[in-house]
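Q: What would this chain look like folded?
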Amino acid sequence: MRNLAQRYHAVEMVLLALPAVAAECAPTDVSELEETLDEVEGAYAEMDVAAFQAALEEANLVMACLTEVVSPSVAARYHRLRGLAEFGQGDIVAAERSFSTARALEPAYRFPSELVPEGHAAQALLSGAPLIATEALLPATTGSFFFDGVEGFERPGGPTIHQRVTSDGSLDLSVYLTPDQPLPVYESVRPVSRSLVAMAGVAALGAGVSHGLALQSHKQWEDPAASSSLAELDGYRAQTNRREAVAVGLGVVALGSGGGALLVGRW
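A: My prediction, written as structure tokens:
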């Protein structure tokens, strides 16, 4: 066991030299990513540093060039392997974040002993990685967002595989984001001004009440038995006109506020 632990330590130290990956995209599918992840795991289990490094670089390229949405289980696997690489690089904070994202997707998973020995610090880091709160995003005007294979506009607090599907069903973005990296720019739905909506509702209610009172005073003006003099009739007529004017004014406010809310944004 001691020799095995020493070999793992040797692999982890060499991983400090993992370079950044940059290359042109060749369209790939999820099955190719899974095959590449098989190679990453196999190389890690065999302590083949060169093969592990090459396979992990290939997995990074394949992920960035996907033409399909990954499943949550594939995304979790990808994050766990990146976490192992980060652990080997000595970046425990980054490794824990990767493991946190993986745990959110597959909370019961533990590394098999043939991949990571029992008692290894990476096992404990994975099982104890905290869940990180998500961030609510404004919806896009068109298309769908996916984070680690989950559709929606909730960005995970840890690293994530972010993918976007256009309205015609094609994937036009597949990118790995660390927590400090901004989301690629997109056109979002503008939020409705709730104050304008509330104003429109109150004004509409007031307009309805005022119109109802105007109808009431109008009926009194038309009913000969309700008045005893010409002056009283004139009073009912003036009251009706005032109430109708208030109703019209509040109606204009309601329409203006409602129209303004629609111009400002959408639900």
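The longest helix spans residues 230-264.
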